[in-house]
Specification:
Two copies of one chain form a homodimer. Chain A has a domain of 172 residues: Carbamate kinase (3-Layer(aba) Sandwich), CATH 3.40.1160.10. Chain A is built from twelve helices and 20 strands. An eight-stranded mixed beta sheet of chain A has the order 3-6-2-1-9-11-12-10, sandwiched between helices. In chain A, a hairpin with an 8-residue loop joins strand 4 and strand 5. The radius of gyration of chain A is 24 Å and the shape is globular.
Chain lengths: 411, 411
């Protein structure tokens, strides 16, 4: 008899029929004797509809009013799901973020959870009810409605699971787990039974968009076992959990992440003096452009080439900023490329295995793929390559690290 | 420098453009130096959309969840209106019923307001803000969202005006005031400058659907001056207020109300013994049928004919109930007619003028209209006639009581 917090995203509750299917799934868990707290998002499309209405009113909608507006999306879903549960004989009760209450800071549209009261939820669970909570929203100390930013429903689920000391936080989504890489690119991509929070964070931030990064961080911090499952087909999904020291043999690499959304910019011939990095990246940051990878090399003539990547949408803007920077720094020129892709290998096993990076470079070299940038962390190695080689690179690495579907390396 | 509570209904906020028009109207009042609290309904169509979703889930949707669901309708409007106000430089802040807070009893979907806190609203007004409140909704002592039932936004407006001691509660709607009768029936129907709460109640309950009855009762009880105006064209509208003793000359009749939604049923040859009325109306009431007019006459043979009217939708059901009643009472038979209409003359002037009823009957007789039932109160006389004579009767009465457009009797 466990306590599960289950989160269903917008696609999983996207229609009357899908909400009814969620109700049936929840009923199944109740019939097995488990307690269930359900966290739901707005029905798919609803948040975009509301945002469009807001933008008809105000180009930059007032953040407090924006939160009051979009928070109605989940409120609709919680009420409908409770009706669907009652219809099939499952007692249920809905709560908005303010009703629970999910206390947040005052940063409208991107608030962070500070505390969750669990008294009302506990009382309902003790009385045999399913509790249905609106994800993505909370309330500040002055009673203003806040939202956690898009996708924040995952965070609500994890935070509730932590506050309630739930046995598992289950994130229902439209994929049936976390894969070694995107199955659309590599046919042999394999669902992982288990992955660590750290690996998941690297996978997520590198473009495998199964879970919200903040939710994974939160789950890791509070050691809430997190499971990604499909709303639409049965299966064990992927369990995201703390590192399991007992596992004798660990795969070196858990997965291959990749990202096509980046563009690369280089300032060439920069005088090699202190403070150059901040004089290049300061103006970029002030233009609200986020930087991902950064690489700097010293050339023979005591100048340096400074390269970084940005989101592809910011490419033109960043080029504009750099023209001014080149003048001010007395640099030679700035060049850029928006036909690049980033590929990363991720795995906690890297820590205890030498030679992982060189194995990666070998595999790419064997396919004649030139590496333009390299960046490493304790559990990942990322490279930037020409976008046209992306699929080839991912398949080569997937095979080189023995990730293709087979039982030999699965946990 | 007055404080106005302004209520805008679903049609008045039915689109982005209309919400922007409301914002402009509110800005005009602010520029004249007035304080404004705005109460809004859901955008027209929205509440019906939500109810349809609920009914897809549950034939009889759970009332608590229904309230959580439909209350999102007004929440969307308050946020959008605040954005529209801010866009044109008017500082504004939205409040849901729970945020204000509008405290109600626990009767979901038909709650009644018990108390309104005004502290936050006062603070915002003092800081020069327009306060925008979601109509139709409140919260109970346990923090559950409640609604006042359909059309309850008028009541929210009046209750807020009473709590804030506002100078006037202005109800903006799609008509430009209260008329002597329906202008679609009588071309010469005239907008009234003023009408008393009592007259308005009789007009409203008799089928002139400009204002919610409960809102008028509430306004009368707390002596909140109520004004009905058009959202779409300028004009003074109609002021609903307490009886003005200073007016020397009062029109005898303020207006003609009528109603096509009724059906008439008669139990004939009922033994004239005590308790007959309850033995007839008891079963009707238990079948959830509401009764409007009731008339009983004693016949020469010591039996009685008992006649009453019900909503036309309940006609068949009521006939079924009466078949059983006839058997149990040993009555002769039951007959009915659903091709009837009710016409009423309403006016506080009746109190001090004799012969109003007979003047009404004369006017109908002159048109050869047979009167089937009569019912009177202190400030109204209602008759039931064949439906086919309805328009003729209304026009005849409008003219007989000098209500046709002219300045001679207007206040």
């Amino acid at each position: 008899m466990a306590l599960y917090v289950q989160k269903y995203g917008g696609t999983s509750v996207g229609s009357v029929e899908r909400i009814q299917a969620v109700a049936e799934k929840v009923k199944g868990f109740r019939q097995q004797g488990h307690d269930v707290v359900v966290v739901v998002s707005a029905m798919s499309g609803e948040t975009n509809r509301l945002i469009a209405l807001a933008q008809d009113m105000q180009t930059q909608p007032d953040p407090r009013e924006m939160d009051a507006l979009v928070s109605t999306g989940e409120q609709v879903t919680i009420a409908l799901l409770c009706m669907a549960l009652k219809k099939i004989g499952v007692d249920a009760r809905s709560y908005t973020g303010a009703q629970v209450r999910v206390l947040t800071d005052k940063y409208h549209t991107k608030a962070r959870i500070q505390d969750i009261e669990t008294e009302r939820v506990r009382t309902d669970l003790d009385q045999g009810r399913v509790v249905v909570v609106a994800g993505f929203q909370g309330v500040d100390t002055d009673g203003n409605i806040t939202t956690l930013g898009r996708g924040g429903s995952d965070t609500t689920g994890v935070a509730l699971a932590a506050a309630l000391k739930a046995d598992e936080c289950q994130i229902y989504t439209d994929v049936d787990g976390v894969y070694t890489t995107d199955p659309r690119v590599v046919e042999g991509a394999r669902r992982l039974e288990k992955i660590t929070f750290e690996e998941m964070l690297e996978m997520a931030s590198l473009g495998s968009k199964v879970l919200q990064i903040r939710a994974v961080e939160f789950a890791g911090k509070y050691k809430v076992p997190l499971r990604v499952l499909s709303s639409f087909k049965d299966g064990p999904g992927t369990l995201i959990t703390i590192e399991d020291d007992e596992a004798v043999e660990k795969p070196v690499i858990s997965g291959i992440a990749f990202n096509r959304d980046e563009a690369k910019l280089t300032v060439m011939g920069v005088p090699d003096i202190p403070g150059v990095a901040s004089r290049i990246l300061g103006p970029i940051s002030r233009a609200n452009i986020e930087v991902d990878m950064i690489v700097q090399n010293i050339a023979a003539d005591h100048t340096t080439d400074f390269t970084f990547t940005v989101h592809r949408n910011d490419y033109d803007k960043a080029q504009g900023v750099l023209q001014q920077v080149v003048k001010e720094l007395g640099a030679r020129e700035s060049v850029g490329n928006n036909k690049i892709a980033k590929v990363s290998i991720v795995g906690v096993g890297m820590r205890s295995h030498a030679g992982v990076a060189s194995k990666m470079f070998d595999a790419l070299a064997a396919e004649n793929i030139n590496i333009q940038m390299i960046s490493t962390s304790e559990i990942k190695v990322s490279v930037v390559i020409a976008e046209k080689y992306l699929e080839l690179a991912v398949r080569a690495l997937h095979s080189a690290f023995d990730l293709d579907a087979s039982d030999t390396v699965s946990e």
